[in-house]
Amino acid sequence: MSTRWGNRLPPLPSPYGGCGTPFEYDQGEGVRCADCLAKPRAFARARAACLYDEASRGPILQLKHADRTDLAPLFARWLSRAARDLLADADAIAPVPLHPSRLLGRRYNQAAEIARPLSRLAGVAYLPDALVRLRATGTQGGKSGSGRRRNVAAAFGVPARRALQVVGKRILLIDDVMTTGATLEGCSRALLAAGAACVDVAVIARVKESANRSI
């Protein structure tokens, strides 16, 4: 089943903007999309393996909500290709964290399930708990861009005992889907505040437009 999905999902076209938005043609290195120019991101670069669409939605939701952790190595392989340039620069890989209450109900963190095998594939250090979610937040699904930002404001942090793991390091942050980027932005700000030199982002899929999705 994993192989069938892997064959069906075309890679996200390149080149990319800073937030991972694919451009139709090469506009030169360092070019940003209109959204990034209007409001610069905390993370430096982003990559996605594919678009979040009818083909990718099923397997992603199965990993996230249906205990299909067997799909995580497949997604890690996708990211090892899509984020090859970011992995080459990364000192460490960190997953977007779940709050303990959410983790208790789901029993696993889908971002961590992808980040762990990705670190092995790339030979990059894995930081499973350098970043934590400080408070429980409601689901991001159905919220506007500003609502998503408010929902995760000050929701993430780096524990003092883990600060040395991120100080001066280039961190590659891993999640399943990027919609508006609010969660990844919040995580990036927390890592930078703790002394990270730079934060890049890699996700399985990104929503083509900054529209609300129930994911």
Tell me which CATH architecture applies here: 3-Layer(aba) Sandwich
Largest sheet: 5 strands, parallel
- The count of DSSP E runs of length 2 or more, i.e. the number of strands, is 7
Radius of gyration: 16 Å
Distance linking N and C termini: 21 Å
Shape: globular
Helical fraction equals 25-40%
Give the CATH class. Alpha Beta
**Structure class:** alpha/beta
Order of helices and strands: HHEHHHEHHEEHEHEHE
Estimate the strand proportion.
15-25%
Write the layout of secondary structure elements.
Layout: H1 2-8, H2 34-38, E1 46-51, H3 54-65, H4 72-82, H5 84-89, E2 92-95, H6 100-106, H7 110-122, E3 125-126, E4 132-133, H8 145-152, E5 156-157, H9 163-166, E6 170-178, H10 182-193, E7 198-206
Parallel strand pairs: 1-7, 2-3, 2-6, 6-7
Antiparallel strand pairs: 4-5
Helix pairs in contact: 4-7, 8-10
Your description of this structure?
By secondary structure, this protein is of the alpha/beta class. It has one domain: Rossmann fold, CATH 3.40.50.2020. Helix content is 40%, strand content 16%. The chain has 10 helices and 7 strands. It has a 5-stranded parallel beta sheet. It has a two-stranded antiparallel sheet with strand order 4-5. Strand 6, helix 10 (182-193) and strand 7 form a beta-alpha-beta unit. The relative contact order is 0.19. The model is unreliable at 210-215 (pLDDT under 50).
